């Protein structure tokens, strides 16, 4: 293969745009066709082989974890393509992924969540499948039980990929008290300790909550907005820096209410405007273009709360 690649590079250089134009030698043309044929991979066949290999290891009493890891990495690359994601489901990947997620080696659970995220992201067919077969509901329940920050982050990723933009999944998420659960776990973890891992988890969770609330607002679906507002403010108070999607969620929920929000009249939140103003002043001093969205959201919230 290396020799073929070197030959292909040589031919590419010889017949590049800046090279002198001349007919290709028939022997070179024949070799090129053979090299390209040898380099062509049937991706669906490769996907099928990977699924079968992974299934075999999952059924074994002594699975080769290194080989399983390599196979999953290959599947992650292949399933970046939507067509191959759907092929994954057709060739038996659905059952294999379920087994990997819920019965597989603990060291590969995160890899399983990454693969689930790949399969379901922007893919209504897969979102429907993993919503209707109960996987989404099981993942949401699992979120409350887990304490490993890295696992929680990829668990959020998988839940988010199944949920975002797919109304039946959003309904399951809400029925499972997903918004409350996510915000409660984020509050719990921030109280335990602030670290880069915790802040990455907060970013993932805040983005998911914002997407869900945005979807509800766009479809005019009723939600317990004041409950969410309280939780978001509780979480913001714990952070050293106001997280952009938490601010966006508050703006989304409070702006339509205007002065009727009455959030300022509640004892725990009377100082919230001062908190917002302090952070707005700090962001204005920095004058970082990347903070423009946060500045705008805080400014909007201050007007609503005034």
Automatic annotation (TrEMBL):
GO molecular function: adenyl-nucleotide exchange factor activity
InterPro entries found in the cross-reference section: ARM-like, ARM-type_fold, Hsp70_NEF-Inhibitors
Lineage, opening ranks: Eukaryota, Metazoa, Spiralia, Lophotrochozoa, Platyhelminthes
Cellular component GO terms, alphabetical: endoplasmic reticulum
Name under which the protein is recorded: Putative hsp70 binding protein hspbp
Species this chain originates from: Schistosoma mansoni
